[in-house]
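Sequence design from tokenized structure. All designs in this work follow the same two-part layout: the structure record, then the generated sequence. An example of the structure record is given first.
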């Protein structure tokens, strides 16, 4: 997920590897991912808001991976 910590890691990897940040994301971070993009914090917030709403009243437990297919690989 794109967070300030991940942003710093991208910057550090780009500097250490001597490649652009976009290339770090594409070739280092997302290479093994099923969906080639970072999860945005707003996507997780939307799920949390749904789960806290009355519409999710029938959900009483379980696993809802928000990982762009990472666990399916």
């Amino acid at each position: 997920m794109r967070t300030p910590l991940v942003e710093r890691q991208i910057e550090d990897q780009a500097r250490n590897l001597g490649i652009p940040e976009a290339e770090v994301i594409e070739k280092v971070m997302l290479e093994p991912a099923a969906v080639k993009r970072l999860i945005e914090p707003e996507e997780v917030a939307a799920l949390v808001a749904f789960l806290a709403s009355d519409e999710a009243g029938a959900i009483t437990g379980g696993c809802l991976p928000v990982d762009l297919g990472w666990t399916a690989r």
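The two ends are 17 Å apart (CA to CA). We note this feature because it recurs in several other targets discussed in the main text.
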